[in-house]
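Entry:
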Amino acid sequence: MRIIAKNYIESELGFSQYRHRGLILLYSGLMMAIVSLLWWSVFPFGLAFLFWDFLWDECVLLVNQSDGMGLVDMTHKGELYWQSRAYSHPHCFFFSSWLMVFILLDAENKRRYWLIWRDSCDEKTYRSLALLAKFPLT
């Protein structure tokens, strides 16, 4: 039996419909909760309006931003280059058949969470990243 090890990943991540739908459902649910609390007179109208405005602005910002998109280069040394930034020690925080969440460390040792949805890349790239999630390079 041959064992083939892949020690380099280079791919383009695109727009994810799952991420888009999940964010819309999340923020719609929160907005409906605010409306129901306003209906039962738990929140004053001004406070409910401020929460509604804040959630709407954040929803539009998160849905329209291209946070998970861009060119990804990963080397055998455990270095990751994504969106023209270098990250070290990618660690998989959560793994499922539809979503992977990596924790990345940048140059200032700040954490960044990187969500990769199954439909944001091709099948070969997702399998390579899944292999990396189960068996880290470093």
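The chain has a mean pLDDT of 76.
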